[in-house]
Design brief:
By secondary structure, the chain is an all-alpha fold. The protein folds into two domains: 233 residues, Arp2/3 complex 21 kDa subunit ARPC3; 181 residues, Orthogonal Bundle (Hypothetical protein af1432), CATH 1.10.3210.10. The protein is 62% helix and 1% strand. It has a two-stranded antiparallel ribbon. A hairpin with a 5-residue loop joins strand 1 and strand 2. The chain binds fe (ii) ion (2 copies). One fe (ii) ion binds next to helix 11.
Length: 464
Amino acid sequence: MTRSLRLYVTWLVGAALLALLVTGLVIRVDPAIALPIDGSQGPIDVAAGIAFWTVVTLLASALPIQLNSGVQVAVSTAPLMAATLLGGPTAGAIVAALGTFDIREVRGRVAWYGTLANHAAIVLPVITAGVIITSLRGWAPGPVWELVAALVGTLFYFVLNLGLVSLIVVFRGGHSMREFWTRAETTNLWANLLTLAPLGWLMARMYELPGAGWWTTLLFGVPLFTTRVAYQRFVEMREMFTQTIGALAQAVDARDPYTSRHSQRVRQISVDIGREMRVSAAELEALEWGGLLHDVGKIGVPDSVLLKQGKLTREERMIMNAHPVLGAQIIGPVDRLAPELPVIRHHHEWFNGSGYPDRLLGDEIPKLARILHVADAFEAMTADRPYRKALSGEQALSELRKFAGVQFDPEIVDAFVRTTWAENTRDPGRSELRPIPMLGTHAARLAQQQHDAPAPGSPAADLA
Ligand SMILES: [Fe+2]
Ligand SMILES: [Fe+2]
């Protein structure tokens, strides 16, 4: 555990304990949560009510869904909010503290500080939501206003809970705050879990309803379970999609023994550069899938060209250079991959306009394609090819530096240097600003030569 994470967890747990103590002393538990055991609505009934909601919340928390970011979600928000609506912030906090254990925690698979932090990150937001609901409800009695109060309270609960959890994820390392908040899963989570707020309100109303009673709450198990199943399916579908794309990329790489794992590595390098440049989560995803699929057009390049050891003829080079366009055509019909199309089509454009297929210049080249171009070049240079040995990291980096402004966007090369791929590698630094050579000059000649035997001193990347 890092020092900052330890400090944060200590602060979080301390704040939750303090809040629990203060609310417990100041705000009484509303007897509406009481479960009629002796009918007196006294302490025994109230305790039975809290125990009842704790069990319901435990059942709803038992099978959480694991997201890619390492965060878990469960449908326990509905009973948790119902308990808060009925008993107020103190009752809600007790239910939150005891009722949100999941199976992994019970089996001791989560470190003790993780369990404490998870529960504190729920208790604090529940207390806040409870206070908001209680004060809003005081303004105007009536079921409609109460529903509004429940929605507002749940919204605060979500924002605070996600905020506290995102800090844990950030302190644990690996993700930026922006990435966490804009992840597609988190966005979907909002839409999905906000439906749990009205469900929580309904559970609370049914519980109180004369003639209905506590047992009606159990009927809500069905919609809660289907919500969970739907969410699970969503996560699984995404996983399957990523795996299918990975398999496709592997099929492309496998045709050439010299490029095995090329796409996987390009994906990793691109994503790391993207993180360094603080691109959004959607852009990171486009880099991830774009990295895997960038050379998918090579499916259409015959073996006689793809695997040729000698110099390519003009016609063969034209066939080879068609792979970005072909790749974009192959992926075109997949609606979900629309953001990746420009990355695939333009990953061989040069910063000075002498690349292909569209000879875009500088900022005309989509940013993600410029990122992928650097990643692709570095990967190609540091991997063995039939006609040359792999360059060392240092040689490859000095090539990137040398051709920054010509082939590569200098800012992206700067970002690459900050990633772990360039760690412990001597960086020659940015060369003096040079004017962008125009078409037909030095750079364009390089583009002609480099297909076959790029020696150190000329960019080795265009085959990638
Ligand atoms: Fe390529
Ligand atoms: Fe490539």
